[in-house]
């Protein structure tokens, strides 16, 4: 991959955050994204000891956290 790949941006459609959303954070790496979820009032959870690839290292814990978040979404 060329280094310029990291400078790319994905277009975000208007209203994307108005849907049924939740956020699972792996540790404190994505603190800004977790704060965004809080501001939007989304269900959220942080796996404190998790790293970037936690879903590969602890798939059962990750799946349980996702299932819990999904159960907290309102319709």
Task: Describe the fold and architecture.
It is a single chain. This protein is an alpha+beta fold and 75 residues long. The chain has a domain at 20-71. 36% of the residues lie in helices and 11% in strands. It contains three helices and two strands. Strands 1-2 form a two-stranded parallel ribbon. The model has no long low-confidence stretch (mean pLDDT 89).
Summary, kept brief:
This protein has 75 residues and is of the alpha+beta class. It has 3 helices and 2 strands, in the order βαβαα.
From the structure above, extract its key features:
75 residues; alpha+beta; two-stranded parallel ribbon; 3 helices; 36% helix; 11% strand
The biggest sheet amounts to: 2 strands, parallel
How much of the polypeptide forms β-strand, as a percent range? 5-15%
| Global structural class | alpha+beta
> What is the total tally of β strands?
2
Which value, in Å, is the CA radius of gyration?
14 Å
Order of helices and strands: EHEHH
How many separate helices?
3
Cα shape: globular
Which range best describes the helical content: under 10%, 10-25%, 25-40%, 40-55%, 55-70% or over 70%? 25-40%
Low-confidence stretches: none
Quote the average pLDDT: 89
What spatial order of strands do you see in the largest sheet?
A: 1-2
Quote the distance from N terminus to C terminus: 41 Å
């Amino acid at each position: 991959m060329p280094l310029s790949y990291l400078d790319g941006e994905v277009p975000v459609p208007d209203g994307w955050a108005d849907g049924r959303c939740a956020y699972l954070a792996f540790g404190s790496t994505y603190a800004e994204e977790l704060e965004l979820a809080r501001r939007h009032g989304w269900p959220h959870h942080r796996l404190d000891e998790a790293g970037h690839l936690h879903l590969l290292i602890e798939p059962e814990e990750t799946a349980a956290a996702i299932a819990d978040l999904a159960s907290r979404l309102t319709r």
